[in-house]
Specification:
By secondary structure, this protein is of the alpha/beta class. It is about 35% helix and about 20% strand. The model has no long low-confidence stretch (mean pLDDT about 95).
Length: about 290
């Protein structure tokens, strides 16, 4: 019986108060919070935790199995959840190597490049099923205090195991999720040009880099009609240009986010003119 506690800390400030035996993607900008026994991180530009030196946690067999202790995560996506399950020596890995290779590929290259992988339709269907389950069961992030997510990790292990064993109900839910994503891709599309895809919808669309013609954009500028907000994102995570710098140059320091994705000031309803300004700024940044 495992006695491992899983904790999510959404900020470096919160993470510094956690004494973790293992950390999984506890990456806060350029700072990696290391575990006493092992550190599973791979998004740094240089050093031991860059993608060339360290595999994604979900595909890293070097993560130690522990029977007691604390595991720290910064967020809950498939990659970090997979890393957490390696600590528990979960049965979701044996015989499913190609699925976890696909999960690593998507984590590194983005959902928009899923078609470039050679994972095959079975693994792709399973991936959408996991995403569908996460959409319904993943706890909301807490930005004020750490969250104990031990029960969620246990539930995720059961769900992923069922999906990889061919649970038809969960796979069918994934099919519906994929259909909804395809519909959103079409309905939210406004126009594209200069590597920028412009979208408008009442929900999040900054993961949809594929334009109406099937071409893959370098950036998405999206207007959320529900909140009146504008979000800028880059497919490369902000290596070529910084989304945060762009939105702050446009709308001041109240705007913010990360290099890979950033948005307009919270509580401020943006206009169509603001959307045009964002498109033009991103297009220039990509030149």
């Amino acid at each position: 019986m495992s006695n491992v506690t899983f904790i999510v800390a959404t900020s470096l400030e919160l993470a510094m108060d956690v004494n973790a035996d293992v950390t999984v993607e506890a990456e806060y900008g350029a700072t990696v919070v290391e575990g006493n026994l092992f550190t599973a991180a791979h998004h740094q530009k240089e050093g031991p935790f860059n993608p060339a030196a360290s595999p994604a946690p979900c595909n890293n067999p070097s993560i130690p199995v522990i029977k007691m202790g604390t595991v720290l995560l910064s967020h809950l996506d498939l990659d970090s959840i997979g890393g957490a399950l390696r600590v528990l020596e979960s049965d979701v890995f044996a015989g499913n190597e190609s699925f976890w290779q696909l999960a690593e590929f998507v984590d590194l290259h983005g959902v928009h490049r899923l078609g470039q992988s050679d994972a095959g339709p079975i693994n792709t269907r399973a991936l959408y099923a996991v995403w569908a389950w996460l959409q319904d069961h993943r706890p909301r992030p807490d930005f004020k205090e750490v969250q104990v997510v031990t029960e969620f990790i246990s539930d995720a292990a059961e769900a992923i195991s069922a999906i990889l064993d061919g649970d038809e109900d969960k796979l069918a839910a994934g099919d519906k999720f994929r259909e909804a994503e395809d519909k959103l891709n079409v309905e939210s599309f406004m126009h594209s040009g200069f590597g920028v895809v412009v979208r408008t919808a009442p929900g999040f669309t900054n993961h949809l880099y594929v334009g109406a013609d099937g071409s893959v954009g370098e950036a998405v500028v999206a207007y959320n009609t529900k909140f009146g907000s504008i979000t800028v994102s880059f497919a490369d995570g902000g290596e070529k240009a910084s989304a945060r710098e762009i939105v702050q140059e446009l709308w001041g320091k109240e705007a913010g986010g990360r290099d890979g994705i950033a948005g307009s000031p919270r509580g401020t309803r943006m206009t169509s003119e603001d959307l045009t300004d964002a498109f033009n700024a991103v297009a220039v940044a990509l030149m």
